[in-house]
Design a protein that fits this description.
about 400 residues, alpha/beta, Rossmann fold, 2 domains, 7-stranded parallel β-sheet
Length: about 400
């Protein structure tokens, strides 16, 4: 009997979610038919993940509520959108000849999985990508919805999360400890094909017309461009770094006024800051990381989601996969990883240009050693296919034993 898995990903940024893509590809390799349900976003959509992987995108828009521009509508609008998404995910017919186990991504995706659980008796797992406290987010206004979210979390057959530290926080948020938990890093699959997919060209030198003599070293901050990843602080600090390094921000601006924010970054550093705002297809993402000399993984210590980011960072394993040494912010989760494997240097003060320049020169002087350590770290901590094996066995057993679903 064929096996199938639906992945409910309300946020919709499939191309920016390595775990979602890696999960889909590994499951397909194991004979599962995979369907990803997501919402429309402005990011490029993956073109070809596999012949048995399909993606359906739904609109978040609710005409009546979207037209009301008042803060009081905010939470109610979010709830309405999530419930709309869950109901849309129900429209696919339940085929009895398919053994189905589903995955709800974060609290919103798990609501869609919960609907499937009650309507079609399909088992599901809860996948945590972001740490978000539902009680703090919705407060008293939406206690009923908070209850639904927590019910979905409890009804899941198991939890998938990046590491034990993040799981402890999730337990605090949802006031419940699961009997079964699996740890998966937020990382891409590794293969010789992807490691050599870029050829001899350098993506950023061609795109940004960067002279190799003036800027022999390309320092990349990939992903979000915003204050949560210290973009302004780093731009100012690198303006005083004069050792042939070009600072490249590649990704999506996550600030309210995009134009004004980009202008402020240019004013902060008109010397060696370069902006790459056109996202590439996921199939070409290796070109981004191959082009860098050193990777930056800086996060502001603003909440649990960022302070415990090491195994949940999307860009960090990409740097390591391609053998790129890293500079990281001084957060415990990042510091422990960097120091354990000697893959880079922890920066105590990201506004200190001298500290950054000294760290860069140290990495460049022993580049091959740091690069080899980066790849060893990836193989030990971020090899998704290896980390996936216990979860695969569990999902196979769920398909074989439908009666194991929680009542």
């Amino acid at each position: 009997m064929q096996r199938a898995c639906s992945i409910f990903f309300y946020d919709g940024y499939v191309s920016l979610a390595p775990t979602v893509i890696s999960l889909s590809e590994v499951l397909e390799q194991q004979g599962y038919s995979v369907t990803i349900y997501a919402t429309y976003t402005n990011t490029p959509q993956p073109k070809s993940l596999g012949k048995d992987i399909k993606i359906f995108y739904f609109s978040k828009k609710i005409k009546l509520l979207d037209s009301i521009n008042k803060p009081v509508v905010g939470n109610f609008l979010t709830i309405s959108r999530v419930l709309k998404f869950a109901s849309q995910c129900l429209k696919e017919k339940n085929h009895s000849e398919v053994e189905q186990v589903n995955i709800g991504v974060d609290l919103y995706g798990s609501v869609a999985a919960l609907f499937r659980f009650y309507v079609f008796k399909q088992k599901f797992l809860f996948l945590s990508l972001e740490l978000e406290n539902p009680e703090a987010k919705f407060k008293r206004f939406s206690q009923f919805f908070v209850n639904i979210l927590n019910l979905a979390y409890r009804k899941a057959e198991a939890v998938i999360i990046q590491d034990e530290e993040r799981y402890k926080t999730l337990i605090e948020y949802c006031h419940y400890q699961h009997e079964k938990v699996f740890y998966l890093p937020n990382s891409p699959l590794s293969s010789p094909e992807t490691l050599n997919s870029g050829g001899n060209e350098n993506f950023f030198r061609e795109k940004l017309n960067l002279n190799s003599e003036k800027f022999p070293y390309l320092i990349l901050s990939a992903g979000m461009i915003c204050e949560s990843v210290c973009s302004t602080v780093l731009a100012r600090a690198f303006a005083k770094v004069d050792n042939g390094c070009a600072l490249i921000f590649h990704g999506v601006v996550r600030e309210p006024n995009e134009a004004a924010y980009l202008n402020s970054l240019k004013q902060a550093n008109a010397d060696n800051l370069f902006l790459s705002l056109d996202l590439v297809l996921y199939e070409q993402i290796d070109r981004i990381y191959q082009a860098a000399t050193i990777g930056l993984a800086f996060y502001d210590n603003c909440d649990d989601n960022f302070s415990k980011i090491a195994m949940a960072s999307g860009k960090l394993p990409q740097y390591l996969k391609h053998g790129k040494p890293v500079l990281v912010s001084n957060l415990p989760s990042l510091s422990r990883l960097v120091e354990q494997y000697n893959i880079g240097i922890v920066i105590k003060d990201p506004s200190d240009s001298e500290e950054i320049q000294s760290a860069l020169e140290k990495l460049l002087s022993s580049y091959e050693t740091y690069s080899q350590n980066a790849q060893l770290c990836f193989e030990a901590e971020f090899d998704f296919a290896k980390k996936m094996q216990p979860l695969l066995g569990f999902m196979d057993k769920l398909c074989e034993n439908p009666a194991s679903a929680k009542n």
